Amino acid sequence: RQGAWYFAEPEQDRVDATLALALLDRLNHLGIVEDLGAGGQKPDPVPLGVEGDRAIRVSLSGAGGEGSKPVKETIVLGIDAPRSGSVYARREGADPGLFVVDGNPRPWLESPLEVMRDRKLLAAPANAVVQIVLRQSSGEIALQRRITPPVQEWALASPLVSWADREAMDALLTAIASLQIEEVIKDGKPGGAIPNPLPPEAAVLQFQIYGIEQPLTLFLQTIGEAENGLPVLEARASDRPYAYRLTSNFLKSLPDSPNALRDRTLARIPHGFLEAVQIQSRIDPLVDLRAERNGPSVSWKVVLGNKLVPANASEVNDLVSAVNEAAIQRFVSDSATDLASFGLVPPQRRLVFNLKFPGQVQSDGTEGEARELTRVLDLGWKEGEEGRLYANFEGEPYVYELDPTFLNLIPTHPVKWKSLNVLTFNPMHLKSITREKADKENLKLDYNYRTDAWSASRSGLDVSPSLDIVSARRLRDRLGSLTATDWYLTLGPAIEALQEPGVTFTIVTVELDRAKNEPVETTRRIRFAPATTNLYYGQLEVVSEFAEGSPDVFLIDRDTYGDLIRDVTTARVPVP
């Protein structure tokens, strides 16, 4: 019943499902080795054990499957036959006979209650449990999940609402599934009332199993200590007739408060449904990040001034991951009545995540109305306790303590969110590259994409014969996909250094002006100057109207700078 095997007589208890299937398989595959009635004379059935005290009568019945007849078979198993692994068996019904069969199911059937009783206290598989209510003397904890679409992971439902820790739930379910009955107490009273209030060393667990209407209740209580030092537990189950005993540390391992089962990561914000992110601080301008979707692909833009410019998508993904993976060091408060005392009103930082979930598919196949959700994370600290960082999601009563270095993962200036792709151009648009090194050279490379031809001059002298074409192409490709390591906000020292650059590149391209639908020559100039031993300032200057640039200063590393100033000629052409 309810998908499980039960003994019906002389007791009503659960049968081990694995053993029941093994028995059915063995009975279904009893192969006839010898037909003892084939010669017309049948031997005396009593000595063979198929009649008398040693006979085991097995009747199989069932409604049958779709398109098949009802099942009704009876066989009588006798004693072991001389052939190893075989027994005597008699078949009753429309096709009777006496045989030696290969296979011996007697070990299961001689003491079926002892052998085949389900020793698992909880018969249902752990992955079918959708609700748990745990009651102890310290209080009650309720958890729930959904295992059908839309799937929802384990969450605490009472006495607080929160995601549950995945590892803690796996450990709890594993511990429940491993509870094994060691002794059956037939004079126990399974129907007795559960003590109220519960004694300290006792627990009630109520389970809702997917596909089973009635909940299952377990009551466990410590009644002593075994010789090995483990507690002896007495258990009663709502779907079983007796009391049972086992030795286990299970009760001692149960969580004594909901915090022991709470998810210790800060959030679970789904990347795929994120539409916008805003970061507010008390000093810097608002960071406004917006997703742009084109089918399955997503790109990000950041608002700078009145313009949307490409943002660093990896940085956005890293921010969401950092919030999702931030470890909660302490559950500080479950009440939002005094948020100001934690520096959260107003907050020092505020992160706003705008999400948009697709609507559910309707009966006619159309998609329903999309659901929008905004989650706002406030971060703050108490005056004089800057080493402690507190967090709260607006609308929720919980205050968490985080590692204060978490703030380092949240750039608060919009420039820091710009794409690190400083300069991008198509090689087919390139006309020339001029590289000016301070007091050293003025190298100009001219390029014809149609013929893939290069020419070079240094300080007005033709050096084309000594030009290394491979090196010229590398320089073109490096400038055409120039990527910064970071954006630099302290402009004073950078601007001063860039007044006397170590190298300046002027890139001329011919690109289509879509407004005029005609080619336009555009010029971009990039200057570089030393910042530290391993870093260099860079700035892209707007030279012509069509080109794009900004006054923002970026940084490149020493290796990138070295590649840009590498010589592209094999030897200097002597001056005539």
Briefly, what is this?
The protein is mostly beta strands and 576 residues long. Helices cover 14% and strands 39% of the residues. Strands 9-8-7-6-11-12-13-14-10 form a nine-stranded antiparallel β-sheet, with no helix packed on it. It has a nine-stranded antiparallel β-sheet with strand order 18-17-16-15-20-21-22-23-19, with no helix packed on it.
Total separate domains: 4
Strand tally? 34
Taken as a percent bin, the fraction of beta residues is 35-45%
Low-confidence stretches: none
Rounded average pLDDT: 90
How does the overall form come out from the CA principal axes?
elongated
Global Rg: 39 Å
Biggest β-sheet strands, sense, barrel: 9 strands, antiparallel
Distinct helical segment count: 9
Write out the strand line-up for the largest beta sheet, numbering strands in chain order: 9-8-7-6-11-12-13-14-10
Distance between the termini: 104 Å
Structural class: mainly beta
Helix % is 10-25%
What would the keywords be for this entry?
576 residues; mainly beta; 4 domains; nine-stranded antiparallel β-sheet; 14% helix
What does this molecule look like?
The protein is mainly beta and 576 residues long. The chain folds into four domains: 17-116, no CATH class; 126-261; 271-417, no CATH class; 421-565, Immunoglobulin-like (Sandwich), CATH 2.60.40. 14% of the residues lie in helices and 39% in strands. It contains nine helices and 34 strands. The strands form five sheets. The protein has a nine-stranded antiparallel sheet with strand order 9-8-7-6-11-12-13-14-10, with no helix packed on it. The protein has a nine-stranded antiparallel sheet with strand order 18-17-16-15-20-21-22-23-19, with no helix packed on it. It has a nine-stranded antiparallel sheet with strand order 28-27-26-25-31-32-33-34-30, sandwiched between helices. The longest helix has 13 residues, at 313-325. It is elongated, with a radius of gyration of 39 Å. The protein starts with 16 loop residues before the first helix and ends in an 11-residue tail after the last helix. The mean pLDDT is 90.
